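Give me the fold.
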Amino acid sequence: MVLKYPFVTEKATMMLEGGNKLQFIVQRNATKQDIKRELESTFEQKVAEVRTMMTMKGEKKAIVKFADEKAAEEFLSRLGIM
């Protein structure tokens, strides 16, 4: 399992509303292709873009943009966050 958990903050919520993007904390050794593959198989939606970065706490964070405009909101509602 590459994904650990969704990263939900006020800034992440603004990215969701404005850019159809979700943030996830992932394993440190996960590649962009691993993240994309797991998200597409888990949620059955096309991923348009994956960007990764390291947080100040030493965790790896992935910012994922989906091809479908409503996919990000649907995922958060499936997970019970929104």
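The chain has a mean pLDDT of 91.
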